[in-house]
Design brief:
With about 725 residues, this protein is α/β, with parallel strands linked by helices. It has 5 domains: about 70 residues, Transcription Factor, Ets-1 (DNA polymerase, domain 1); about 190 residues, Nucleotide cyclase, GGDEF domain (Alpha-Beta Plaits, 2-Layer Sandwich); about 200 residues, 3-Layer(aba) Sandwich (Rossmann fold), CATH 3.40.50.300; about 70 residues; about 150 residues, no CATH class. The strands form 3 sheets. Strands 1, 2, 3, 4, 5, 6, 7 and 8 form an 8-stranded mixed β-sheet that branches. The chain has a 5-stranded parallel β-sheet with strand order 10-11-12-9-13. Strands 15-14-16 form a 3-stranded antiparallel β-sheet, with helices on one face. A hairpin with a 2-residue loop joins strand 14 and strand 15. Helix 13 crosses helix 14. The protein is globular and about 65 Å long. It starts with a helix and ends in a 5-residue tail after the last helix.
């Protein structure tokens, strides 16, 4: 039975473990389960039943290989790295076992081997849970990449979380002598992926100062501490408590390097506040959305509860809009409840509700358990709950029992816990109107989703405005309810984007033409507008150097601001290797390109061009359908907008794929098949203008842009 529990955890459905155990379901009968069986044991969600059945079908050799093999088969496969090097932003972790030299002097080699092996296994298991890639074992040291071979939008955060957990995990290894480790982390642009060596010594090479910086920071760290670079610190914002170690001289670096020691997680649960609150941009172009939210609030405050669903792609301004709503309601008599999901707690049952109760009760990190129980009991007193409900909610925090609980099944206890949470919410609503904000619902765990379902059902009879934000991949089931309003945030138009640039720049010398240029490149995404504007201002480009700064002629890293590297690269990686390669080639060609120009250049991927089709790009997604060609591929893509180019090229390479990619407006793009006799010599010569050339200056007529041969990719 424990094996089934582990298998459910790998699927992110550990909340069903008790139901499987109650029904005595093990691997011997797992393959016999049907949809009706799953529904009967309590898997009410159709989506979860379908996922479970699909996972069961994918298990190979349950009878032959046993539970361990089945669990391994159920785990998602690690993306296979490409066999070619590529330029990308990577967060590098260097971990070292403290005192290994002293251990080798006094221990038998076989005993030392056991320690080193246990340490390496601990590192591997820890970093792989956070998406890290083990690049190299170096005796008592381990080199790890985050952002390769698969990028994530939060790679720096993943690396820091992995480092903190690694320090704790190594300290818990049981040997005759206590083990300690130290960790250094740095983030920056590298060229990574070259296969170096052969046989057992083969590894993925990495070139750039980032791995050297991570190694130097590791040497600077004290035992059982984690030190990060300035680049990493900017990426993690206020998600962690950090200590400034000042500017330090590091071997091999001419300039002093600022180092930071990570102490632990901070109390900031809002990712928006942790990453963006230090520089809160003015809200522009959302007057209609704010007006709608205020109207819904007035109705809710009068007793007619309402739910507003706010959907939009990453960086479009969902959290900024909810922050503006809270600002507009400052001074009003109301109760504010805020719930935050996390990509790192999708398997933690009721995580958003537990975190909210913890904040509301005022728990401190060093509070003894008795004080925590007293604080929780005082918080719940408003609803006058019976001792049983207090005990049920105390169990969420693993607090010791004060009130005896009557015998009940796990399912019944779960239902009572849900009702206790709802009664607490209703008690608050009876006192004064409630503004309840639930952010990033696409990361919600299944148990919290059930509580939220019941909250939405009861909302119409309560003075409550429930505002829920999520990305387009989450499909809400409540859209048709009368108390629900759906609000999809669109991209900013050119005029509004320019106004946002000018608002961020303030008194800085930035002309209206330069502001318009940044707005055009940002493609209407507020996050892109903010980061590109800051990149120009920090580079001191002013009015005349916008093109050079963004195209990378002055500094290659400025072409795509550091804060945008990870999310853009993550989108490209999700497309697959062939579409990504085509996107990189297309980005070097320029802003406009035809199939006839692209196909001969993209020789390796040309075989993927199977049929004529048209690609219809809509904000946030694309689809492909077979049709006759009408005109060349054209997009507003530039060096800072490569994902849009990836959408165009990926459609040509894989046709019927759907992905969330930035696009400023609906655009019909067509790709035409050319006869087999086509050759590069017969193709029309590309015509570039100053605005089309990737490096910002028009080449001589008929000659390729210098960047095409010097740098095939802007990412």
């Amino acid at each position: 039975m424990p094996e089934v529990v582990d298998w459910l955890k790998t699927l992110g459905m550990s909340e069903y473990a008790e139901r499987f155990a109650e029904s005595d379901i093990d691997f011997a009968i797992l393959s016999d389960l049907t949809d009706k069986d799953l529904e009967k044991i309590g898997v009410a969600s159709l989506g979860h039943r379908r996922k479970l059945l699909r996972a069961i079908a994918n298990l190979e050799g349950i009878e032959k290989s046993g539970p361990v093999a089945a669990i391994a088969a159920a785990r998602p496969a690690t993306p296979r790295p490409a066999d070619t090097a590529e330029r990308r932003q990577v967060t590098v972790m260097f971990s070292d076992l403290v005192g290994s030299t002293a251990l080798s002097a006094r221990m038998d080699p076989e005993d030392l081997r056991e320690i080193i092996s246990a340490y390496q296994k601990c590192v591997a298991e820890t970093v792989q849970r956070f998406g890290g890639y083990i690049a190299k074992y170096m005796g008592d040291g381990v080199l790890v990449y985050f952002g390769y071979a698969q990028a994530h939008e939060d790679d720096a955060e993943r690396a820091v979380r992995a480092g903190l957990e690694l320090i704790q995990a190594v300290g818990e290894l049981k040997f005759s002598a206590p083990l300690q480790t130290r960790v250094g982390i740095a983030t920056g642009l590298v060229v990574v992926g070259d296969l170096i060596g052969s046989g057992e010594a083969q590894e993925r090479g990495i070139v750039g100062e980032t791995p050297n910086l991570a190694a130097r920071l590791q040497a600077l760290a004290a035992p059982n501490t984690l030190v990060v670079s300035e680049g990493t610190r900017r990426q993690i914002g206020a998600l962690f408590e950090i200590e400034d170690l000042g500017l330090r001289p590091l071997a091999g670096f001419a300039a002093l390097q600022r180092a930071w020691r990570v102490l632990g997680e901070s109390g900031v649960l809002s990712r928006f506040e942790a990453l963006r609150a230090a520089f809160l941009t003015p809200l522009v172009g959302r007057e209609e959305e704010i007006a709608l939210l205020l109207r819904r609030w007035r109705r809710a405050a009068a007793g007619e509860g309402h739910v507003v669903l706010i959907s939009g792609e990453p960086g479009i301004g969902k959290s900024r809009l909810t922050a503006a709503l809270r600002e507009r309601l400052e001074g009003e008599e109301l109760t504010r409840l805020r719930y935050f999901t996390s990509p790192h707690h999708q398997d933690s049952a009721l995580y958003p509700f537990i975190a909210q109760l913890e904040r509301a009760a005022g728990f401190e990190r060093d509070d003894p358990v008795e004080l925590r129980f007293n604080k929780l009991e005082a918080l719940l007193a408003l609803a006058s709950p019976p001792g049983e409900e207090v005990e049920l909610l105390a169990e969420l925090f693993s607090l010791p029992s004060r009130y005896p609980l009557p015998p009940s099944t796990p399912q019944r206890r779960r239902e009572k816990t849900f009702e206790a949470l709802l009664r607490q919410f209703e008690a608050l609503a009876r006192q004064k109107p409630v503004l309840m904000v639930f952010e990033d619902l696409h990361w919600i765990d299944p148990s919290s989703r059930e509580v939220l379902d019941r909250t939405i059902e009861r909302a119409p009879s309560l003075p409550v405005l429930l505002v829920i934000t999520f990305r387009p991949e989450f499909v809400p089931p409540w859209s048709g309810l009368p108390q629900v309003t759906a609000l999809t945030l669109s991209r900013l138009d050119r005029r509004t984007g320019t106004a946002m640039v000018q608002g961020i720049a303030g008194n800085a010398a930035l002309s209206s033409e330069a502001a318009a240029e940044i707005a055009e490149r940002a493609d209407g995404v507020p996050l892109f507008v903010e980061e590109l504007t800051k990149a120009v201002l920090e580079a001191g480009a002013g009015s005349e150097g916008v093109e050079k700064t963004l195209a990378g002629a002055v500094s290659p890293s400025a072409a795509v601001p550091a804060a945008l590297h990870a999310p853009l690269m993550a989108r490209l990686d999700r497309l697959g290797q062939t579409p990504k390669e085509i996107a990189q080639i297309a980005a070097a060609i320029g802003r406009e390109f035809s199939y006839e120009l692209l196909a001969p250049v993209a020789t390796a991927a040309r075989r993927s061009f199977k049929m004529p089709f048209a690609v219809s790009l809509m904000p946030g997604s694309f689809s492909a359908a077979e049709t006759r060609p009408t005109r060349p591929i054209s997009s507003s893509t530039r060096s800072s907008e490569t994902p849009l180019m990836a959408a165009c090229c990926a459609a040509a390479a894989r046709s019927f794929t759907r992905a969330s990619l930035p696009c400023s407006k609906p655009t019909l793009l067509s790709v035409s098949r050319q006869s087999p006799s086509i050759s590069p010599a017969t193709l029309p010569k590309p015509a570039f203008s100053k605005r089309q050339c990737p490096i910002g200056s028009a080449p001589a007529r008929g000659r390729p842009c210098a960047r095409q041969t010097a740098r095939p990719s802007h990412i």
